[in-house]
Write a structure and sequence with these properties.
heterodimer, A: alpha/beta, six-stranded mixed β-sheet, 19 helices, B: 213 residues, mainly alpha, two-stranded antiparallel sheet, 7 helices, 37% helix, elongated
Chain lengths: 671, 213
């Protein structure tokens, strides 16, 4: 007989287990609709791999695990995918969660599946993969993915594997009946676990209020080296840390996992599920759930498909809704109330408790704490519940953490013994949630701060880059200025002079063939163009704030003066031309032209001077009109400046000629 | 020398004292020079500690361009009650850190937010002007010129600085409703759960009525 060690505190509430132990496990059958939540209590939700309307068979994968701490979802029976939508789930918040809804067909057709009885030949990784693919999550309550728990390699080698069959909470008998009826499979499952973890000892802890289970297990475990240990009945002996302490005498350090002291705990339901997965190749599709309380006529244990609505199961047990006070998922101490019986059974649902008002009355209003200290006596985690209560009321989170609030297992022993009926656990749950939220907020604030700092740094960097570009441009401009000055003052000037000289020489060479008038007109046009260019340059320089402004200004003035001079020269020339109208043609004309001219002269000579003048006037006026027309057209069409200037000049010239001719005509008339 | 000192111990004592004074004076002078803490580092550390308590929404409601500048201003003597997102809890934390009296929140800088908000861009109406992207202090808006923008809600601090620059008013501040993931246990109802005082002391009880009479 192995020695047990016990743990601090604990309570002895009425067991109320016998009601549901009168019959063996009954099969709940196939409900018309199965609701399979995609997310487990812990970990990321699974991703659906089926579409609405698709036919699925029993055991078919319908949602795959998205990350390491996540379990896949399988169809619990054959049927059609009815919907993938938000449904109410068994959660104290009463909020909906994404679920896959299957309309069952009642045929219960399996997909092809196969396991192996020869699991001893399998590698560790293969076994873990089988457990992962079977979607096994801890069936004790927390629902932590078993494959994760088994594949994390601890710092300390595992000395003790503990299988938790304590089932200490009142009313619940699901593990008890499983141990009685499936002891052989359970032991096989434990052997698989033992193969995975290679512990030096393997213990099954069962409370001594389950003598039938203990006997069945001892019979099955004969010769396997697995030790079935009866522990005294005391709530909460089934708490992981409490069971470890009872069986090994070792305490799990605060804030650490049991693997730290070389212990791993698995629930007996998990062991059976592992047997099914490995030996039979079946994923976790059903579980044993106790339906009990005075509001059901036949309290009993059911083998129920995961996803079965609670209402279906309650009706199987003879549910009397009118007498039911509330629907509790789990036991009377650690369970929570769900608002609607339509929520589905999940992998962790070990009990549905439907008490009458007399059986589990609504708790009376809380009285003030009288500092009796009974809560500290029963606390299995050796905490100071009344201190925690005061700190929780005052929201003194630092002190709560200093008083090891996070070691609280929310067993409810303190609230059970409290003479003032203070809902202590609710204070602790709320405070833990708030502290976790504050930590999350803190993390988020830290992330925001980093992002803000990165943002500021980026702004500074771009500003610095801009500044660098700006100064580089300035430098380049400063380098260009002397170059420009050189260009305009040194070589380029010489070049320009040379060019001008060359041009002048060419002009001189041409002078014999070009009329002086044309030369002058061209001079005006080029000077005008130059003036325009110079003005434009000046404006640009002014806009840039260049120090060339003065030089350019002088240039513009000079060009303007040149233009005026050129215009004056043209005017003078025209005057002089008028003064000597018989300006002979500067170059030899062809004989034909000469002859024509002579003929014209002769014709003119035939006319009187007045007639001749009148004819001249008419021609001139016609030419003026034509010129004015083309000037207007040029202006309208925005022709080159040069063209417009030339046309303007010819208009002026023609008007002068007309007035001169008229004067001449007048003098003729007078004479 | 030794004879003289043994003959006149007073001089010996004086000499020893003078020697000690000179030694420690030199040591103090050296450390004061070498380990000078006057100046920015201490202020910086205080500002850092204050900044860690600010909510990092970077909303600028305090009148400073971000949490860090406000933290520096507080380190320089600015009032601690200008941060609406931090609320009363934030002011309390600052008061504890700086060992000053907690002040009520200065409402001129905005009311304390009760529910966390996140920006949401109505994407049909977004014209892709990038103005909100420029305004976001934590780079939580994704988009490019003439492309639809969207808010990465996990990174949004709810500062609402992006709402005002939007030329087509397509940004809403929506409250993040509670969901299965964000739900948490509440403290028990104080009326039904626990009054927190001895029942006979509460107003309206027989004892207090007697006392009033």
């Amino acid at each position: 007989m192995r020695r047990t060690f016990g743990f601090h505190g604990g309570i002895h509430p009425p067991q109320n287990k016998q009601q549901s132990l009168r019959t063996p496990i009954a099969d709940a059958g196939i409900p018309p609709e199965l609701i399979l939540p995609l997310s487990q209590p812990i970990g990321a939700p699974a991703s659906p791999v089926v579409t609405v309307g698709e036919h699925v068979r029993k055991g078919q994968l319908i949602a795959t695990a998205r990350d390491f701490v996540s379990v896949p979802v399988h169809a619990s029976t054959s049927g059609t995918i009815h919907a993938i939508e938000e449904r109410l789930v068994a959660h104290p918040s009463g909020y909906p969660a994404p679920c896959i809804v299957i309309a069952t067909d009642g045929r219960d057709e399996w997909v092809e599946h196969s396991g192996t009885a020869d699991y001893e030949a399998l590698e560790q990784a293969e076994l873990i993969q089988m457990i992962r693919d079977a979607g096994i999550a801890g069936m004790g309550g927390a629902g932590f993915p078993s494959a994760v728990k088994l594949s994390v390699t601890p710092d300390t080698p595992i000395a003790t594997l503990i299988i938790n069959g304590a089932e200490c909470e009142p009313y619940i008998t699901a593990d008890d009946v499983l141990m009685r009826e499936r002891a052989a499979q359970l032991i096989e499952g434990v052997k698989i676990l033992r193969q995975l973890l290679a512990p030096t000892e393997t213990l099954i802890g069962v409370e001594d209020n389950k003598p039938q289970s203990i006997a069945a297990l001892r019979a099955a475990a004969q010769g396997t080296g697995i030790d079935v240990v009866a522990i005294p009945t005391r709530y909460p002996s089934g708490g992981e840390n409490q069971l470890i302490e009872s069986l090994t005498g070792k305490q799990v350090p605060s804030g650490e996992l049991p693997s730290r002291i070389g212990v791993i705990c698995q629930n007996i339901g998990t062991a059976v599920a592992i047997f099914d997965a490995v030996v039979q190749g079946r994923p976790l599709l059903s579980r044993v759930t106790t339906v009990t309380g005075d509001s059901v006529r036949e309290p009993q244990n059911f083998r129920v498909l995961i996803g079965t609505p609670m209402r279906y199961l309650l009706e199987k047990a003879g549910y009397q809704a009118e007498s039911n006070n509330r629907l509790i998922v789990g036991g009377p101490l650690m369970g929570f109330t769900v608002p609607d019986a339509g929520v589905p059974i999940v992998k962790t649902t070990n009990c549905l408790l439907v008490p009458t008002a007399a059986e589990l009355p609504t708790p009376p209003p809380a009285q003030a704490c009288i500092r009796c200290g009974v809560c500290a006596e029963v606390c299995p985690a050796s905490l100071l519940p009344q201190q925690l209560f005061w700190f929780a009321q005052g929201k003194e989170f630092e002190k709560l953490e200093d008083h090891n609030l996070f070691d609280c297992i929310e067993c409810g022993a303190c609230a059970y013994v409290c003479p003032s009926r203070i809902p202590l656990v609710q204070y602790y749950r709320s405070s833990m949630a708030e502290i976790r939220q504050l930590r999350r907020d803190q993390e988020q604030a830290m992330a925001s701060r980093l992002r803000f700092e990165a943002h500021q740094q980026r702004l500074e960097r771009t500003e610095a880059e801009k500044e660098a570009r700006r100064s580089a441009r300035k430098q380049a401009a400063a380098q260009r200025v002397p170059a420009a000055e050189n260009q305009s003052e040194a070589d380029p000037i010489q070049a320009a002079i040379a060019r001008a000289n060359a041009r002048k020489a060419a002009q001189r060479a041409d002078v014999a063939t070009t009329s002086a008038l044309n030369t002058l007109e061209r001079a005006i046009v080029t000077t005008d163009t130059r003036l325009a260019t110079a003005t434009a340059k000046l404006d640009e320089a002014k806009a840039r704030g260049s120090d060339l402004v003065e030089a350019l200004q002088a240039g513009v003035e000079k060009t303007r003066a040149k233009l005026a001079a050129a215009q004056r020269a043209l005017h003078d020339y025209q005057q002089s031309q008028r003064a000597e109208p018989a300006n002979p043609a500067p170059h030899d004309a062809t004989q034909a032209v000469l002859a024509k001219a002579t003929a014209a002269r002769a014709l003119e000579a035939a006319l009187s001077p007045a007639d001749k003048a009148r004819a001249d006037l008419a021609t001139l006026q016609q030419r003026l009109r034509q010129t004015q027309d083309s000037l207007a057209r040029s202006r309208r069409e925005g022709d080159a400046e040069k063209v417009i200037v030339a046309l303007e000049a010819s208009v002026v010239r023609l008007s002068e000629k007309i007035s001169a001719t008229q004067q001449y005509l007048n003098t003729l008339k007078e004479t | 020398m030794t004879d003289f000192l043994t003959q006149y111990p007073l001089f010996g004592a004086l000499l020893a004292l003078a020697g000690l004074a000179a030694t420690f004076g030199a040591l103090l002078g050296y450390t004061a020079e070498k380990l000078d803490t006057a100046g920015t580092p201490v202020v910086d550390a205080v500002a850092q500690a204050i900044n860690n308590l600010l909510p990092q929404t970077q909303c600028g409601q305090c009148g400073y361009p971000g949490c860090r500048p406000y933290a520096e201003a507080i380190a320089g003597g600015e009032a601690i009650n200008k941060c609406p997102p931090g609320g009363a809890a934030g002011i309390q934390a600052l008061a504890t850190l700086l060992d000053v009296e907690p002040l009520p929140l200065d409402e001129t800088h905005g009311a304390a937010k009760t529910v966390p908000l996140v920006a949401f861009i109505r994407e049909d109406e977004c014209i892709g002007c990038t103005k909100c992207i420029v305004a976001c202090p934590v780079d939580a808006i994704l988009g490019a010129a003439k492309q639809m923008h969207t808010v990465i809600s996990a990174l949004c601090t709810g500062c609402d600085l992006c709402v005002e620059p939007c030329p087509v008013d397509c940004i809403d501040m929506i409250s993040q409703g509670e969901s299965l993931q964000t739900w948490r246990w509440r403290l028990p109802d104080p009326v039904r759960g626990n009054a927190g005082v001895i029942a006979t002391d509460s107003p309206g009880s027989a004892v207090s009525r007697d006392r009033a009479a």
